[in-house]
Specification:
With 275 residues, the protein is an alpha+beta fold. It contains eight helices and ten strands.
DNA sequence: TCGATCCTGTAG
DNA sequence: CTACAGGATCGA
């Protein structure tokens, strides 16, 4: 679930019910995800604090907390994490790994079947370091074609790996990186620095369009009861479609490994160009 | 810049 | 049984 659009949707969904609330109790059901914090210390630290605001940076969720030295609870959903509002924390889902309890037994739960997600406490320096380690937010004004072009010129990495690098662009993941490259007609192995300016422009547009579309879809999903597959609102054009005909040209979609992860692409619509 | 690793679940 | 999964980090 969690690339930038899904993480943003989670933030928007929980914000109204979480911002301004006081934490009556915190429980870490899987201590490992909060290392190196000792679980009892983390629970004690959170107890009694107030959540001021909920913000997002790339795929990172930040619950800014009240208290003397300003700090924040940093949540990363990784592959299968999620945050849900609970009417009553005495009834937890099976994949609950961590939760905060508010007044009246309602709460916020971190669920994660694979338990690859992470929770940490960040001070001001940590927050600044986190921000500094990340590239521009692709849905903000700071993400311009010129900035993308400048970063591209400086990198000989394959386009797909470039897009996954959070230091270059913050928040793209395996699915939407593949989708953006397909939209822009770029071969995933094409070295970034060999892309024509026009291609960079197309890629910039493709990234923004892909993320905007996915965000709208993710928001609608949360606002609607019942489980709908993402594909119903936001059909993926190449991701997961190995061996199926390309929706644009009919050639079969290929799957290759890059950086240990699957990349899907159309060999006809996304041909390597130039050097 | 790779591969292994952290975990659990699901599909083939 | 094996392969794979929307992520990131660490050590070689």
């Amino acid at each position: 679930m969690p690339e930038l659009p899904e993480v943003e949707a989670v933030c928007r969904r929980i914000r109204p019910s979480v911002a301004g609330r006081r934490i009556l109790a915190a429980r870490l059901l899987r201590p490992r995800i909060a290392l190196p914090h000792p679980s009892d210390q983390l629970e004690r630290f959170l107890q009694g604090r107030r959540i001021e605001t909920v913000t997002r940076r790339a795929k990172n969720i930040l619950l800014h907390l009240s208290g003397r030295p300003p700090c924040a609870l940093h949540l990363h959903l990784r592959m299968t994490g999620n945050l849900d509002l609970l009417p009553d924390v005495r009834f937890l889902p099976a994949s609950a790994r961590f939760y905060l309890e508010f007044s009246g037994h309602d709460g916020l739960v971190f669920t994660d079947p694979r338990a690859l997600g992470r929770i940490r406490l960040l001070n001001q320096d940590d927050l600044a370091a986190l921000d500094a380690a990340l590239g521009p937010e692709p849905l903000s004004r700071s993400f311009t074609p010129a900035r993308l072009a400048a970063a591209a010129r400086a990198s000989s990495r394959p386009a797909k790996l470039f897009l996954l690098d959070q230091k270059r662009i913050a928040g793209l993941g395996n699915i939407y990186a593949a989708e953006a490259l397909f939209l822009a007609g770029i071969h995933p192995a094409q070295p970034m620095k060999t892309l024509e300016p026009a291609r960079i422009g197309a890629l910039h547009r493709a990234i923004v369009d892909t993320l905007r579309g996915a965000l709208r879809s993710a928001e609608r999903e949360y606002s609607r009861p019942g489980t709908r597959s993402q594909a119903e609102d936001f059909p993926l054009r190449v991701y997961g479609r190995e061996g199926h005909p390309c929706l644009d040209c009919g050639h079969l979609v290929h799957r290759v490994k890059q950086g240990g992860r699957s990349t899907y692409f159309c060999p006809h619509c996304q041909q390597p160009r130039g050097a």
